[in-house]
UniProtKB/TrEMBL annotation:
UniProt pathway annotation: Isoprenoid biosynthesis; isopentenyl diphosphate biosynthesis via DXP pathway; isopentenyl diphosphate from 1-deoxy-D-xylulose 5-phosphate: step 2/6
EC number(s) per entry: 2.7.7.60
The organism's place on the tree of life at top rank: Bacteria
Naturally occurring in which organism (per UniProt): Mucilaginibacter sabulilitoris
Its biological purpose: Catalyzes the formation of 4-diphosphocytidyl-2-C-methyl-D-erythritol from CTP and 2-C-methyl-D-erythritol 4-phosphate (MEP).
PANTHER family noted in UniProt: 2-C-METHYL-D-ERYTHRITOL 4-PHOSPHATE CYTIDYLYLTRANSFERASE, CHLOROPLASTIC (PTHR32125:SF4)
Name of this protein: 2-C-methyl-D-erythritol 4-phosphate cytidylyltransferase
Keyword field: Isoprene biosynthesis, Nucleotidyltransferase, Transferase
Amino acid sequence: MSSPLTSHISHLTSKKNYAVIVAGGSGTRMQSAVPKQFLLLNGLPVLMHTIRAFEQSWVTPTIVLVLPLTYHAYWQQLCDVHSFTTPHLLVAGGETRFHSVKNGIDQIPDKDSLIAVHDAVRPLTSKQIIETSYQYAEKHGNAVTAVKSRDSVRQLVNGKSVSLSRDQIYLIQTPQTFRADLLKKAYEQPYSDKFTDDASVMEQYGFEIHLIEGNHQNIKITFPEDLIIAELFLNKKPQA
Ligand SMILES: Nc1ccn([C@@H]2O[C@H](COP(=O)(O)OP(=O)(O)OP(=O)(O)O)[C@@H](O)[C@H]2O)c(=O)n1
Ligand SMILES: C[C@](O)(CO)[C@H](O)COP(=O)(O)O
């Protein structure tokens, strides 16, 4: 993909790395009995695939898992059932994604580090995306994963649809990775319902956002059909 997305940078320094995996939502659009992060994907809860993707990258970040307090005991049971032993710090979820992320980053005292924020319900993130996001954020302060729109795009302006240049439209994914000191500062702002992701919080504070190349397989499980698609992707040739 052409500029401004970048996919290749040099190795990380010895800074400590963290991944805040947000799983504090209730999955209303999925309409399942348990929140979608616990649903099985190839026999393993979605959330475990997501944590494993970070664990298996050479970045090996310290994992901070944000879960609603009411599901902490359930998660513990799932870990026992699936013999899931990846070390992680468990933190209580918040009212919105913003509040959940804030709860997670508040548990990281180390300001001289890199923090990736990632949706628990994006279990197909590749090692390459994870590694590139830390490398790029170290160099530029932040790295926000994105893909170009594959469809034509139109915008409603005063009730009339107007075509946009799709070459200038990016669809935003996670991980979104930041220097910890900058992310912490941005998350001191009061909540706004315009905050749909971490990039929007950083931008509101005044930081320029840098995009890195994502992957169309890095889907967010939102509706029931997404689980079927994720299983298809998972069972085809593994990604790098
Ligand atoms: N209070 C919240 C809301 C969302 N999330 C997390 O943010 C990610 C993206 O959110 P979304 O897909 O919207 O999840 P839900 O809020 O669970 O789904 P819905 O909007 O359908 O209710 C998910 O991993 C979700 O668990 C969170 O940590 N805390
Ligand atoms: C953070 C995110 O996944 C980037 O695409 C997205 O903004 C989350 O949105 P949602 O409304 O919580 O699904």
